[in-house]
Amino acid sequence: MRELLAYLASVILLPAVAAAVIASPAMFGTLRRRTAVVDGCIGVALAAAFLIAFIHEVEPNALLRQLPVELPGDDAPFERWHRVALVALLLALVSPVLALAAAWRPTARSAAAAWMAVAAAVLVATLVEFPGATGMTRVMTGATCAACAFVLSRVGGVAALCGSMVTFAGLAVLAALNGFPSLAAISAATALASMVLAVLGWMGGRQQGEPRALVVAGAASTVMGTLAVTSAACIGAYADRAPAWAWMAVALAAPLATLLFARLRAASIRNGTT
Amino acid sequence: MTLSRRLPLLVVLCLASLAARPWRAEPATITLDPVHSVALFRIQHLEAGLFWGRFNALEGTVRWTLEPKDAPVFDITAKVANADTGSEKLDGNLQGPNFFNAKEFPTISFKSKDATAVGDRHWTVRGDLTLHGVTKPVEVDCVATGIGDGPAGKKAGFECTLTIKRSEWGMKWGVEKPAKALGDEVKLVIALEGDVASPKE
């Protein structure tokens, strides 16, 4: 029992705590008004949570094997599913740049988010090749990445984080059911990190009396969408039970539902006030 | 003594030396019968029970002279898709990326390199075991269990045992994380039977 608790603490709890530590400064106080800081911190925090969970669940060398570096004494095999960690690492590194780019011209934030979604799609389609992948499935994965990231950029920050939480929680269950406990644990950690960030965002908003001020258009939405779709594609590649498009639909379902809910809520508020 | 007088003596000596050399039979090729060739594996679960599973339908060949002192040469392959634990869910888990990763490494193979006799029809066979994309040398205890006559011809059987640490082949899930979920040591018992083809065939 003690071993199981230690495992859950290191693989699921620690990444969520790390995400909270990274994002907290941007959730409270004056930094919350700087959209680039909020967007970048949430993006880095989520990518870091995914990466920390991967390193604790698998091993650091599994990530290093994806890079063009020599690992003396390492004779473990190169496994294609470990590429999800490389995607998370790249997202963590580029998140601050994406956040700054999105905040550069606030009037064109929507267009910037769309361009970032397309860039993430190209990155995933080029970099990620799971077993059984064809040109068509890679294009489909990239396109779903772009759609997922863009949809998340159209909803409020807390709502997007809730959408991310639901998506990763669903992926954790599906990974566990399909004989993939490692990706189930990593997805569970990312779901918990999303939930913690959503709670922090909500608390920060209440503290300052501006519950809808959290902006995740750009870096954070790109990180959430890309990681969700890459994880879904990864589970789908190793499971025989459903076609690739069904896994893409799983990744896209919660963000679309969140967007629909947000639009309906906004419409009902508008109608109520007019 | 002239050469013409020495020649018959040299011929006799050559023939005598050839006769004195031990006669070595040509090895026959034994093609494994997948129905009667399986690999059983045993692993400890949660530090409690010893769980047994099997890989059905082994394929490959054994080259052997059928002589008790001559060591056989093994070239055996198991398909990870043939893992059979008696539970469809467990079979799926075994074939998944946390264990054998069948999509990336669909086969397990053993190729013997040399052997040392340790008894009558009993050898320590050394060779390379390729598992989970990693090839490492192993020592296998092999016994020729019998040579019999079947309806389609002669058959030969072997039983081989070895114990490995799966983490050495990069299969670490359950050893340290989550700790002690599954044992690191895996015992393998491999039962082989095949049809003997004579060297001329």
Number of helices of chain B: 2
**CATH topology category name of chain B:** Lipocalin
Helix-strand pattern of chain A: HHHHHHHHHH
- For the largest beta sheet of chain B, what order do the strands appear in spatially? 1-4-5-7-8-9-10-11
Helix-and-strand structural type of chain A: mainly alpha
Domains of chain B (count): 1
Q: Ends of chain B: how far apart?
A: 50 Å
Structural account:
The complex is a heterodimer of chains A (274) and B (201). By secondary structure, chain A is mainly α. Chain A has one domain (2-70, 77-273). In chain A, 78% of the residues lie in helices and 0% in strands. Chain A is built from 10 helices and no strands. Chain A has helices at residues 2-27, 35-57, 60-64, 83-104, 109-127, 135-153, 157-177, 181-208, 219-238, 244-273. By secondary structure, chain B is mostly beta strands. Chain B has one domain: Lipocalin, CATH 2.40.128. In chain B, 13% of the residues lie in helices and 51% in strands. Chain B has 2 helices and 11 strands, in the order αββββββαβββββ. Chain B has helices spanning 3-20, 88-95, and strands at 28-32, 38-45, 50-55, 59-64, 73-79, 83-84, 107-119, 122-131, 134-150, 153-165, 182-197. Chain B has an 8-stranded antiparallel β-barrel. In chain B, a hairpin with a 2-residue loop joins strand 7 and strand 8. The longest helix of chain B has 18 residues, at 3-20. Chain B is elongated and about 85 Å long. The termini of chain B are far apart. The chains are: A mainly alpha (274), B mainly beta (201). Chains A and B meet through helix 1 and helix 8 of A and helix 2 of B.
